[in-house]
Design goal:
The chain is mainly beta. The protein contains one helix and 32 strands. The chain is rod-shaped.
Amino acid sequence: MERKNKCKNVGFSVILWAVTAVVLFATPGYAQYVEVPAGQEWDIPGDAGPTIVVLWVSGTANILTGADVDYIDAYSGSHVNLYGGTVGYAISVYEGADVKVYGASFTVAGDPTVHYPGETLSINAVLTAYDPEEVPLFTGMISCSEGVYISLTNPGSPPPENEPPVADAGPDLTVFIMDIASTVIDGTATDPDEGDSLQYQWFEGEIAFTLPTDVGANGEAPLDLGTILPQYLDVGIHTLTLEVEDGTDIVPDDMVLKIIPQIDIKPGSYPNSLNINGHGVIPVAIMGSANLDVSDVDIQTLCFAGLELRVKGNGSPQCSIQDVSGDFITPEGAPDGYPDLVCQFVDNPDNWIPGDGTATLTGQLIDGTPFEWTDEIRVVQE
């Protein structure tokens, strides 16, 4: 909590300033006038240079360690932050100005609650370093006009430093290619500093997936994968980055998005090797998920890489529903708890070229929705 001291008439200090200024303006090694305009913020450092006789502040002035100023006039609407330095004579504070003095301790001369008509109440402020063993950083007199308040920071409280925000991109995620459009990554953003305005943005490498967006009231920083062009989210592993900014710091966090195909050629094997001898069948599994019930697939429309479904003796296609794949913690895949549709396609050596590549299954759902799903394959010549 800040301690506040009320000060009275500044007439005496203003007269003293005027007399002293006339003398010092002619002294070598002194800068005569320095003005901080309204709407601007200046640091007054202790670099080698002349002493400032009068510092007029209409904007914001930060008086830093090593600064050497004789007089400061803090006009209405201005802000003066005393972090260190030397003010040789006085600070005159006008109504509507804000002066804060930071340090480990302050002493106030006299009783700040007692005022006499026409008297100037002066605060003899001694600003020490945050380490009590260090010498004072600022000494001087602060004179205030009627109705003006000066805030003194709590002893031992240094100027607050910005606490960076916290970005959480969420856990790694594995998603079927057909589920991308309905998937939302639940990123979050928080900030230990109260009052900071947070924005977030999603990237993959240098590619921005979103514009800077305000964080939700409860820290929401989501990424709707359905809003991203399909060519940026193909089958494979994607490292996505959530960046959160609080106006001072930008903090990133990564998550890994693994997009897997909707079909698995030769489920239970990796790589999906195919010997082209024309003497067998190729099993292909359509993997069921929370968004795909494989019983909705129109089996009669299926075509795999130009190959026909194998037909059993009773004339029905050789397909079965069983859980064979979908969990790709290991490359060959494992059951994931969702039923899959496994169909056998008659091999034809003329359809293949040896080497690594992909093969595509086309078809429709019973409601007429078309699909085209691809998986990797390795063709081996016997």
